[in-house]
Amino acid sequence: MLIHCHRCQANNVYRYGKTPAGHARHSCPASLHVFQITYIYQGRNPDIKG
To answer: Which of 6, 32, 36, 39 is the most exposed, having the fewest neighbouring CB atoms within 10 Å of its CB?
Structure first.
């Protein structure tokens, strides 16, 4: 599965640990952005926030 950064669209994204709920975190070294692919709380989802 190819993962890209939501901010800068870079493809060189690395795993950055897990959340307390066990979901994987990812980090983009280009934009220094840490994000998740799946969200438990939909209010944190960038697609919902607009």
So the answer is: 32
